[in-house]
Amino acid sequence: MDTPITKLFKVKYPLIQAGMIWCSGWRLASAVSNAGGLGIIGSGSMYPDVLDEHVKKCKANTKNPFAVNLPMLYPNIEEHIETIIKNKVPIVFTSAGNPKTYTERLKSNGIVVVHVISSVKFALKAEEAGVDAIVAEGFEAGGHNGHDETTTLCLIPMVKKAVNIPVIAAGGIGDGKSMLACMALGADGVQIGSRFVASEESSAHINFKNAVLNCKEGDTKLTLKELTPVRLIKNDFYHKIENAYKNNASTQELQELLGRGRAKKGMFIGDLENGELEIGQVSGMLDKIMPAGEIVKEIINEFFDTQHNINQIKI
């Protein structure tokens, strides 16, 4: 496949595995990169020494490009940037902050910079900041999301029309059909998260992986917009949030309810009652845990099969 994204990242397929906290370590990233996609290490859940270890192990286990996701609200971000530069990580995906803050510094060290956005407004700001590409993430996505609830189907063509840099679609993508649909809308590649949570190499707890597989339509909801929008599985913790809203809880009270370590408790430790279980709407389509390389292969094969079938339609 030959797209602006495959050229920019020097990968075989324009398929990126999202850098999800507590799920995306070196095993998953290297497996996806070895399969021809772009694997990403999710640094938001790692101490500086842990990220250094994961980057080194990823480099030792794949000869192909990989990336690090860098949430800019992370408290030890300076140490993370030093680790990324020291280990010559080729690509960085920034998120949850102003792209102007670190783009110039990263690019001056030969690093390709991609920024995650959820609206045309922020897409334009990212382009102005000098990033090499953007991830346009729709309402369907898991994890942290935009306030406006713009769906991927609407977001991608609007963003593509507004900017002159490559656009990567994210949100609601879990197979080859949805990948092809996004690229038909103008995307130069896709980023997939939830599907890779349910992979053998994902560092998510098996309890969380099974909870994802058990999700049905309507089992997730975007919430906590006052803090940072996040899509959660409806468990006991989620229902406590709903009750707090019913009681007109303040932002401070919501923050106290969320506390610290809630995502680790749910996704990494496997506490399905009290943990924060972040996943996308596409979880309702998932039914088995697979090796990451097989997931990539299945998605790409279905992409080409679907493309062929569409070309056979007589109008």
Describe this structure in words.
The chain has 315 residues and is α/β, with parallel strands linked by helices. The protein has two domains: 4-204 and 285-307, TIM Barrel (Alpha-Beta Barrel), CATH 3.20.20.70; 209-282, no CATH class. The protein is 42% helix and 15% strand. The protein is built from 14 helices and eleven strands. The strands form two sheets. An eight-stranded parallel beta sheet has the order 1-9-8-6-5-4-3-2. Strands 7-11-10 form a three-stranded antiparallel beta sheet, with no helix packed on it. Strand 10 and strand 11 form a beta hairpin. Helix 2 (26-34) runs parallel beside helix 3 and helix 11 packs antiparallel against helix 12 (251-258). The longest helix has 20 residues, at 292-311. The two termini are 27 Å apart.
Mean pLDDT rating: 95
Amount of beta strand: 5-15%
- Strand order in the sheet with the most strands: 1-9-8-6-5-4-3-2
Helix-strand string: HEHEHEHEHEHEEHEHEHHEEHHHH
Instruction: Please indicate the count of domains.
Output: 2
Helices and strands, with pairings:
Layout lengths: L3 H6 L5 E3 L8 H9 L4 E4 L5 H14 L4 E6 L5 H10 L4 E5 L7 H6 L3 E6 L2 H9 L4 E5 L5 E2 L7 H11 L4 E4 L5 H9 L4 E4 L1 H4 L8 H8 L6 E4 L6 E4 L2 H11 L4 H8 L3 H7 L23 H20 L4
Parallel strand pairs: 1-9, 2-3, 3-4, 4-5, 5-6, 6-8, 8-9
Antiparallel strand pairs: 7-11, 10-11
Helix pairs in contact: 2-3, 3-4, 8-14, 11-12
Short description:
The protein has helices spanning 4-9, 26-34, 48-61, 77-86, 103-108, 120-128, 152-162, 176-184, 194-197, 206-213, 236-246, 251-258, 262-268, 292-311; strands at 15-17, 39-42, 66-71, 91-95, 112-117, 133-137, 143-144, 167-170, 189-192, 220-223, 230-233. By secondary structure, the protein is an alpha/beta fold. A hairpin with a 6-residue loop joins strand 10 (220-223) and strand 11.
